[in-house]
Structure formats: C-alpha cells, structure tokens
Write a structure and sequence with these properties.
five-stranded mixed beta barrel, 14 helices, 33 strands
C-alpha cells in the first residue's frame, strides 16, 4: 500500500526474487470468490520493506546483492531498465487463479457506462484460436483507461486480468496492474495500438500475434462485414451501427438530446424533422438545401444523454445499436406542438446498454473515418454544381491569385513587399516569414464565441480559460460562510453596508482605504467581506472599485485567484495564480488621477491577466486548406477589444455578425467572401516533441462596408 507499492511497481520485473518484512497478516475478503489463499500479506508504512534480487544469469559469477526497497529509501535503488517479458495464456487454458495476460478477438462489447458505484464499467467477450469465448468485466474510474473498442472484430491485449470462476465458466476481471491495447481487426490495415498510456511494450512477437488473430478471425462467422451500414442502406425497424460526422446538436429536454449527423449518403426515406430553439443549438442552426437532404436527426435518450453532451460538432462518431423507426413518432420539445408527420423515418438511440448500445468518438486517423471523409468530400465537390455556385466558380481566382479579380472584405495593414501565394505553396514555406494570401473561411472554432475569450499572463506566457459563473459563485459562497472575527487593517476604516434582499436587508462588512476617502466614487476602494457573487455584482454597479476579501487567521486575505480579484462596473479582473504574491494592502495615494485596475493589481501583489481573443480558422482556396490562428492581432481584425467583448453585449454581437458574414451558417462555399490576409509562420513542438510549423493571422483588419458590397483597398 501507499508509496511502497509505487516504488515496488517501478523496480520489480517478472522473474525477480522478492523478500518481504514488516507485514501483517489479514483475512482475504475475496476468498469465497477467487478460491485463492484465505489470507493476505499487508505491507504499509515505514516498518514494511521489500527486498528485490535479480536471479543470476550466465556469465554472472553469482547473484547480485539484494537491494532494499522501502517507502523511505526509494532513492537508493538504481538498476538498468529492461523491457518486460510477458507470457500470454490461451483462452482455452484459463483457470481460476492469479492475474494473467491474454490476447483475443472481440466478439461482443458494451461501451463504458456508469456503474452503481464510482467507476465506469465496460463488458466485452473475446475469443482466440482455442475457440473459447471468455467474458471480461472492466471497472475503471476514468473512461480513458477502458479498452478503446470500435467494432466487433477488433483485437485486444489485456494485462493484469484475473481469471475468476462464475457459474461453471471463467470470467476475466480487472486487477492491479491492468492495461489494455486495442488494434483494428481487419487484415491488411496498419497495426497501430489504441491506448491512453504514454508508454507500453510492443515488439515483433506482439505484432505477429495480432496478424495471426486477424487471419484466424477473418474465417469466423461471428465477425461483421468490413463495410458498415450507411444511411443510404438503412431499412425500417432495423438496428444498426452508424459511422457519421456530427454537424450540430441541441437539448430537447432532460432525457433527450438531438444529434444532427450525416455520412455523405442519402437515406431513401423521408426523414423526421425536429424543431428546436436556434439559441440552444451548438453548431450551425441551418444548412444548404442540398445538405439538409442528407442530414439525419438522431434522438439520444436516457443514460446516453451524458455521452451526447460530451461530443462536439465536427466529431466523427459511431452510434451503436441505433434503431430506424418508421411512421409517426411523438417527439418532445417544439416538435410536439407541430402537426404529426405520418410518413417519415426516425432514428432513436434508446436507453440501456443492451446489445452494446452507446456512442463512441472515433479518432480522425482511423481507417473508418478516412473512408467517411472521402465520401463526404465527394459530396462537397458535387454540391458546388448548382447554377448559383457555378457562377461563383467562374469568379474563383486562378492559382496566380491576381487580386484585381476578387473583391475582399479585409485589408492588410502591413508594409511587407511580397506577392500573394496559394495555400499549397504556403505549406512549403519556412518559418519566420510573412506571407500574403487570398482565401475564403471554410470553418472556425469555437462556434460559441464566448469560448474564444481567454486570460493571458504576459509574465509566464500561459493562457487559461475564463472561469464560468458557476465556479466563481461557488468560491464566493464558500467565502461568504466565513464567520471568523477579523481586525481591520490599520490603514482602513471598517463599517457595514446593507444589501437589499429577502424580507430584510443583509449587512456586509466593508473596509475603506483612508487615503482615498476624499477622492469620490471613481477612486474609492472598497474591500468587501462576506458577499455572494450576486451581491458583489449589485454593488459594483454603484461603486467603481470592489475587492472581495475573506478572513484567514484573523487577517484579511483575497479569495482564491480563480475568482476575480477586482470588480469595476460590469468588468471583472483576474490574477495569475502562478505569478502573483497576493496580499491585502493599501495602494499609494495617486492625487487627483483616478486609480485603475493596474494600480490596484500592483498594490495587491497581483500579476494582472489580460483578456485575449483566440480563434482557429480553417482557410481554403482552389489549391488546398490550412488551419491558422487569430490571436495577437484579433482586436485589430475585429475592431473590438477583448476586454469589451468580455463585458459588453454590443461588442459580442459585433464579432458574431462579422463571423456570420465571413462564414454564413449553412452557406455554400460560393456565398463566402474572399479575404486578403497577412500570415506569419512560426515553429512550435507538438505533444510528441516533434517540430511543427503553425500560422497566425497578423496586421489584417475586417473592412466590410455597411452596404452589401465591400472593396479591396489593397488591390494595387
């Protein structure tokens, strides 16, 4: 138990000799289930030790000296690491006993679901050449620790599973040291392990086992065909697994979520229409008429609602055991007040986990997603053949990108003397250069623009999310329960202020800076103790500078820096938890000049965080697509400060209108305006430590006129 277990696990290898001391003996709570020894040895605390000795291997003259392993002396151990050697047991040879390692082909599975306890549970059946089918039950607190199974026929490698006898059959249960790798089971596809672990052992022998299981499984009748069912092949009343892309989603009620999906094929039946409020839709609320005919409305019910809340528009999904329901259907939400549609097809994912029912997000590099992308891209190419879009294609610039041919609604403010290039050429350029391009905006993230607001620390160069009101309200609520007595600082006057509410006003403690008492409301600094978030916002509408505080050890302290340290009207200001040395003290007198957030932050030892806008654009021209970031010059681009966007609804609406113009919801490519942009290329490292080149929009302004047309002031 404890640190000793961690140290031992990191040092021991199969085949080592271990000597235990300082243990206690306790009855095994699982002896009736596993039929193993009725007692366990329990090692915990400083009195317990484990000694590890490696067996002699020729030409060694003798055994190496034992190395003491204990929670107190873990730093003494130093041995060269060696790759673990695992012995895999055939499923037909399993007997109740200690933990084993196995390979198998998945013949049935249930995606992880919430158990009655704190863990998630996943269930699968596996088989191998011994033609023995074994049930596996896996309980893990984290979803990412479960095997990543996408379909029947996948191959799994399980370490740390314990054979257990149940009703005259053997089951496998997860135990200490559990890990899982999953592989695509289709012959000929790349052997790429799916795992959340940062390190695992996989050698040539393992690869051979996977290939042998693939070849064996290909001849078995329990495996499904390689080609999954698409919307074009759906039959009424059938259950099927659908591989698709999520375009938009919306809550219907507490027990139902709507997913709008497509797979690039057209269902031969009239599809159900589900009407929801546009302001609750995540993702585009409408699409082009051609695309709408390919979109299926999938209703997700009961225990699958939580999984549906986690997926995002743009994700590639596999929905298991989806049911095609013909005829009329009573649907909750706004649709319930509409006329009943008799002749239509509805898609329901019912509650429960029977037959593996559930939702799984597929990685973009999986073969199934690559196949799906090809189908979708083929449709998008054909979609541009309407008369109106043919006209747009006529005005699409050639690869030379002569800017005279295209009107642009952005203006480059840079002075770089460089000719525009295509995206395909731009991808070949080196970092450190500025480039000019003429492109359209294909898509952008995040779709909910309030999520584009971030907090940036100029000192440690970190960026963080803006805390939501629920988190902030919780911090204020905890602080408002503070009942400690507190002496006011020597430099402050203490008093109380009444907050209207309920049957009687509530009195809150306030502390006023004596230096700033005569400067009026613009300079008055109020330290407010015991208030809720709602009460603080109410007072901030009247007083200019409010600093929430609490009592700690009889002194005033600031709240956790996840909460704003300063309220000025509708504006809230945050500090960097890493770079701040927060303390409650009086700012220096500043004469007749009003104090601002920078002066207050400096006085309180706060490293002020700066509001910034961060967005990711997918750009396109007639040669390629490219992902770029809009960050440092986002305020120049939109003509709106990030601080205003954080507090001003008018500023938020302005950004929304610009984005709707640049990337119309549901609009075709031909309807999107052309943009003249300046990009800078820079190099960074990805999660694997490899260098990658990224691009950022710089020195460019949105210039769309109030009229329907916009001019390219940079055409020359």
């Amino acid at each position: 138990m404890g640190a000793l277990a961690k140290d031992f696990n990191q040092a021991v290898n199969q085949g080592d000799v271990v000597v235990l001391s300082g243990f206690t003996v306790g009855k095994s709570p699982t002896v009736n289930m596993d039929r193993l020894h009725p007692y366990n040895l329990l090692l915990s605390g400083d009195d317990a030790n484990i000694y590890v000795s490696r067996l002699p291997t020729p030409p060694d003259p003798g055994p190496q000296p034992a190395v003491k392993r204990s929670s107190a002396l873990s730093a003494q151990v130093s041995r060269p690491a060696k790759a673990p050697k695992y012995t895999y047991v055939q499923l037909g040879d399993l007997k109740a006993g200690p933990a084993v390692s196995v390979y198998g082909v998945v013949t049935f599975f249930k995606q992880p679901y919430k158990s009655r306890g704190t863990d998630f549970c996943s269930i699968l059946k596996i088989a191998d050449q011994s033609k023995k089918e074994i049930l596996c039950k896996i309980f893990c607190k984290k979803l990412e620790d479960h095997p990543k199974i996408f379909r029947v026929g996948d191959i799994v490698r399980l370490h740390g599973v314990k054979p257990h006898s149940y009703k005259n059959s053997i089951e496998l249960l997860k135990t200490f040291g559990f890990s899982a790798l999953t592989f695509d089971g289709v012959v000929g596809r790349p052997i790429e392990p799916r795992t959340s672990s940062s390190s695992f052992h996989f050698d040539q022998e393992d690869q051979q086992r996977v290939e042998e299981l693939r070849s064996w499984a290909a001849g078995q009748g329990f495996l499904p065909p390689v080609s999954p069912i698409t919307l074009s092949a759906v039959e009424p009343k059938h259950y099927f697994d659908l591989t698709c892309q999520l375009l938009a989603k919306a809550p219907i009620d507490t027990t139902c979520v709507l997913l709008r999906v497509w797979d690039g094929t057209r269902c031969p039946y009239t599809l159900l229409k589900v009407i929801v409020e546009p302001n609750v839709t995540e993702g585009p609320s409408s699409f082009s008429a051609e695309k709408e005919e390919l979109i299926a409305n999938v209703l997700i019910y009961d225990n699958h609602v939580e999984s549906a809340k986690q997926v995002k528009p743009g994700d590639f999904l596999r929905i298991y055991n989806l049911r095609a329901i013909p005829g009329s259907s009573k649907v909750p939400g706004l649709t319930s007040s509409q006329a009943v549609e008799v002749d239509h097809m509805a898609f329901h994912l019912h509650g429960g986990t029977a037959f593996g029912r559930g939702i799984r997000v597929l990685p973009e590099d999986s073969p199934d997603v690559q196949d799906l992308k090809r189908v979708i891209e083929a449709f998008q190419e054909d979609e541009g053949l309407s008369d109106s879009e043919m006209l747009e294609m006529w005005f699409t610039p050639p690869e030379s990108l002569d800017p005279v041919l295209v009107e642009s609604c952005t203006e480059r403010r840079c002075s770089h003397n460089t000719q525009p290039v295509t995206l395909s050429l731009l991808k070949q350029s080196k970092p450190g250069r500025f480039n000019h391009i003429s492109v359209q905006l294909r898509s952008y993230e995040p779709h909910r623009l309030h999520q584009a607001l971030k907090l940036y620390c100029s000192k440690c160069k970190t960026m963080q999310e803006v805390p939501d009101d629920e988190l902030v309200a919780g911090l204020f609520s905890e602080a408002s329960k503070d009942s400690e007595s507190c002496s006011p600082p020597l430099w402050a006057l203490s008093g109380q202020i009444d907050i209207p509410g309920g049957s009687a006003p509530r009195a809150l403690n306030v502390y006023l800076s004596t230096q700033l008492m005569s400067e009026g409301k613009s300079n008055k600094l109020i330290f407010l103790r015991g208030s809720t978030l709602e009460e603080t916002c109410h007072l901030a509408s009247t007083y200019q500078n409010i600093v929430p505080v609490m009592s700690s050890g009889g002194d005033l302290t600031l709240l956790d820096l996840s909460a704003p340290f300063l309220f000025r009207g509708r504006r809230r200001y945050y500090g960097c938890p890493q770079c701040s040395e927060a303390t409650v003290r009086e700012p220096c007198a500043v004469g007749v000049e009003p104090i601002d957030e920078k002066i207050i932050a400096e006085a309180l030892g706060i490293q002020l965080l700066q509001f910034v806008l961060l967005m990711k654009f997918k750009l396109q021209d007639n040669t390629d697509t490219l992902d770029v970031f809009l960050w440092k010059d986002a305020e120049l681009f939109f003509g709106v400060s990030a601080e205003d966007a954080a507090a001003n609804q008018e500023a938020q609406n302005s950004i929304r209108q610009m984005m709707d113009y640049l990337c119309p919801p549901g609009g075709s490519t031909g309807e999107r305006p052309w943009l003249d942009l300046c990009l800078t290329a820079y190099q960074t490292k990805d999660s694997g430590g490899e260098n990658q080149t990224c691009f950022q929009i710089c020195q460019t302004t949105f210039t769309k006129a109030s009229s329907s047309s916009c001019t390219n002031s940079n055409a020359a």
